[in-house]
Design a protein that fits this description.
Strand order of the largest sheet of chain A: 1-2-3-7-4
Largest sheet of chain A: 5 strands, antiparallel
CATH superfamily of chain A: Chorismate synthase AroC
Largest interface: A-B, 107 and 107 residues
Number of domains of chain A: 1
Strand content of chain A: 15-25%
Radius of gyration of chain A: 21 Å
CATH architecture of chain A: 4-Layer Sandwich
Helix content of chain A: 25-40%
Oligomer: homotetramer
Order of helices and strands of chain A: EEEHEEEEHHEEHHEHEHHEEEEEEEH
Number of helices of chain A: 9
Structural class of chain A: alpha+beta
CATH class of chain A: Alpha Beta
CATH topology of chain A: Chorismate synthase, AroC fold
Shape of chain A: globular
Chain lengths: ~375, ~375, ~375, ~375
């Protein structure tokens, strides 16, 4: 089906470009009868939008969602839900330069080759981080559906920025993760992260980081062996987020260094429910949810757009060129990414919950 | 399409169980005219099969591939290629115990719940590492196709076992990676890894590790934004391998700690070709191949089957139970995994190369 | 993927409702570099739109296409193309009555049950003939692509209205099929058909009919056995058009009454090209195009909306009810259907031509 | 996904060739817990197999099904079910001649072009009617599933052979449709049909015919608008059967000649259930099942293989050639087709019933 579609039963098709008329997404497979209006989506979009704090780009985008199909009398109808954001504050003039001079570590060069120069390069076009707004719109519907039908909730938060690592992550401070600009549950670490980002910006540079995501109340048995394991489908969706370069579940790479007797999770019961004493599996065994919290860690590379002048090539002439990356950019995309991760994970889980027959086709 | 199918143009459908009659896979979308016979596949199967060395399970499986459709006059016909291995050396009796007593950190418990007790639990059934033999069969076809049409080659090798980390990895020693039991290019590290595995086995325990995979000669522009980015589809396929819990591309999690100016790859030319001076992107930008070598690191958890007695539950009675995991097992699955990783990566790349129109539907 | 998506390489996802904000479609997989603007689509939409003649509904819909993504510098970019029509002349008030009282032979009743009363019933909602405008938009892109790259052309025309059957169908009068209101190549039959429709309308009744569709310049070998035979995918798409109840290829049902020696098409050469002396196969053998013109006949039922009062049920009370179907309707949908059929067939053929590797991913 | 796969939730992938080692099919998505063994499938295969009567080919094929995965303890496990038939009575020598000389109205010529001469042409290879045995295997599972869970039953029977048309078709004689060689409910017509077939064979010729198929106990609301309408998916599957050239639902082409007031089905109640007084819709409105019996008519062309010498071409030399079609053939394939049609329809309905959430993923 190509690359613009994701999901099997809760399906989304993305469209739009960073500096085109709009960015949008069509969601199909949402059961009829879910109460839904723009405000259910706008809240999450607002947490993602730029211009909110000193650590993000100062570009202002209103990012107002418009639902143009699939909702009637304030409920989903079972028909495809098309949601879009009309682009407004885009200034495409600075991007003329990158038509032939690819920005280092952006998609520009391979996109030039792949699309023979026809791709809309303005603002990164189809490869822009702006497209994550479409993931938020689709995922906001999924998140509401999962919450209302199965009580499933997904939270994502910053745990690392550059070399600063959060500690002291508790359910209580996860709940208030959006109260600081970094979206880090550990307020002390958040302060240091903020300083580090501001310093990087001052240096004309950028930073990367890590987001952790946990989901609670997952039923046992989501995931379809072999190729639609929960890890498979979650990673596929997460790697669709620009700048994500690493994904691990549970103890992940750290677990690779352990012995089985250290990493195995032993079964016991808690309040009559089967649980494991540890959760090194991150809630997934054999590609299936095992009823424990889903735990994912996602590594973001440092933003490729930096203010420093970089050496690159003029592809049209295959000659060296120097480039100051045009446009207004985030010195670190991680603080804007938690709502994106929450929404992407929700989309995948909604898809699997419907596949597993756990959500009816009409919510009465 | 559920979980048994992967790919869009080079499509594979898996079937079979660890202790059933066979394990098999049907591949569709391979162009007509590729010379193919059993020996093209058997070589890779032999590198995966158990019983080869002191670090693997002593279980003997002949693992002889049988091509039962899609090949005529020693060439592919364009029709689906069904390949299977008849199961032989399986002893299912020890597995009766796990019908109700799930092995820690195996799929047993979620599979019980998901399939209501109907799943074939013998030897792990559908969740067994034995199913990776089907990935090898499909991927061997893909690898041959990629090599013959585009000169693309994928190599995977062990870089970590437990806490031992290989260094000194060069093209030359990668080429001889299969010359030691660990499949590690660094012979000195391989020796330490072997000792560590033997020690773990002696302790009734197991180990995990890391495999690195590199692909050369990839054309620019493979990958379909947004949801079929090369990272998306590769990670989806890699997480279908049992025991994989982490995947990163290029500088991965390490890159998350860097500044943009350190992590960005600057363009230059080499022999008239556009290249980057570094390859922190691991060959993928914006989800598209950029012509540099593809670099992936894959984290495997320690084998869940250990000889030590573990505490678990009898699910039928929700009472505590002690379990000695039945069957004969690998103290570390990593040394058998490189051919699996090579084949899985080849499947995904063949799929994308066909999607991109780079491989004709008939090879003349 | 549910029912809103069609195609594999040239993929379309439909959204919108008859009386919602808009009807739209997103097309993905169109190669980059195809010159495209709204006028390429508007021409075909205009041939479909209502209010054009005495034989169609007097409802006025401007049906102006808006391309909101995927086109840059007047060429396709390789990104998804979202096209929509904002709804304007919709009067939903008359439809309140059908919320509980289903119109005979419309989708109302099964849709009520399927969507638990949440479906948008206004104007038929998602089941309205208005949705065929989205097929025209997607198909117009496909038709242009096929024409420009392979010279493939598809024409559809009315051959039967009620009991009037056209004869004397020649390439010359097919070329002028849009010159009469019925879109029938046989002008004399067209007059009789027009009278018959006007008589039916005067009687508060409606008529059905048959459309024939032929495609020339098809390359040999389109179609993917077994389940994506050309007949399979064409019929699937054609039965997505409301009111279509029958599809046949070549000699179709008439061929079922013949002997093999009468129905077989014998090979010969013409200008050095392999052709058949007759074309009872309608251009398809074994599900593959054989290089002869594709010939399809499509049967439309009489429009279900008639002015006459009909007996039906009030579903909410399971009591008898009489219904005068609300809204303004076509006494016969067939004259508006030829552009829809042309576009639907073009979509399927574009999909198969791309699958067969006959259209490159960039048009230079 | 190419052409070898059908279905979305109840998915089947076909493999094998007429004269290769086997023909087979893998079914995925069948719920766990369905009692299943070979005899559930063999009964339907036996009704399809050749050599049963004077009106079929005298070729003997045992056609014994072998289930090689997905069944454990005589129940489905939820894993893919691979079923195959090992080919036995195939004599490939006569087929050497068609390597370059295509049989008229067979797939030979387009297959030669499409696969560049690499296709397995023996016995028609992948295009052989023998592949319908795989449809029967998959559909037999679907039919059992539908019967056991929802009481849905599908019956198909011959209504026309050449110019002989059955009348007097009643539920009672439909129930005994397999009691005559023609599988025609009208015994008097069956006699005439038999004579007509024997005469055609004696003349070195062949005949076509029509099969009608009805399904009872369908729940209301199966079908997914727009592109997975029930008509869309049923026709797609039915046109995968070799020799099918026409499909109509309910009043079909005959309805195209009627007025709306004649063709509309008016609602009423029967035993408290909503029904229609007539069933011109054939049980489908707006692409959704409406609770009335599904009624489909399927037109088969006369068998392309006839004993008479036919003029054709030697493609390798583009010169005229005369051909006596090699092999042993049916003078009319229709009498062997009813079980195939029943099974194909069952596959589609099972897929839709699962999609609609009407069949649980475990049958307890």
């Amino acid at each position: 089906m190509g690359g613009s579609i994701i999901g099997e039963r809760f399906v989304a098709m993305s469209f739009g470009e960073s500096h085109g008329k709009c960015v949008g997404i069509v969601v199909d497979g949402c059961p009829a009868g879910l109460p839904l209006n723009e405000s259910d989506i706008q809240g999450l979009l607002d947490l993602r939008k730029p211009g909110q704090s000193v650590v993000t780009t100062q570009r202002k985008e209103e990012d107002k969602v418009d639902i143009i199909s699939g909702v009637f009398n304030a409920h989903t109808t079972g028909a495809p839900i098309c949601m879009l954001i009309w682009n407004k504050d885009s200034d495409s003039r600075p991007y003329e330069i990158i038509k032939n001079i690819p920005r280092p570590s952006h998609a520009d060069y391979p996109a030039m080759v792949k699309y023979g120069g026809f791709a809309d390069y303005r603002g990164g076009g189809r490869f822009s981080g702006r497209l994550t707004a479409t993931l938020v719109m689709a995922g906001a519907v999924a998140a509401k559906l999962l919450k209302q039908t199965l009580g499933i909730e997904t939270v994502a938060y910053t745990t690392e920025i550059g070399t600063v690592i959060a500690s002291n992550i508790t359910p209580a401070n996860i709940a208030t993760r959006y109260s600081n600009d970094i979206r880090c549950p550990d307020p002390a670490a958040a302060e240091k992260m903020k300083d580090m980002i501001l310093q990087a910006r001052q240096d004309g540079d950028s930073l990367g980081g890590v987001i952790e995501c946990t989901t609670t109340n997952l039923p046992v048995g989501l995931g379809e062996p072999i190729f639609a394991s929960l890890e498979s489908d979650l990673s596929k969706a997460l790697f669709s987020i620009p700048a994500v370069k690493a994904v691990e579940f549970g103890s992940g790479f750290a677990g690779s260094k352990r012995r089985g007797s250290e990493n195995n999770d032993l079964y016991t019961t808690k309040n009559g429910k089967v649980v494991t004493k540890t959760n090194n599996a991150g809630g997934i065994l054999g590609g299936l949810s095992n009823g424990m919290p889903l735990v994912i860690r996602i590594g973001f590379k440092p933003a490729a757009s930096i203010a420093k002048t970089q050496k690159t090539l003029d592809i049209s002439r295959k000659s060296e060129a120097s480039l100051e990356v045009p446009g207004r950019h985030d010195p670190c995309v991680v603080p804007r990414a938690p709502p994106v991760v929450e929404c992407v994970v929700s989309m995948v889980l909604a898809d699997h919950a419907i596949m597993a027959g756990l959500i009816p086709s009409v919510l009465r």
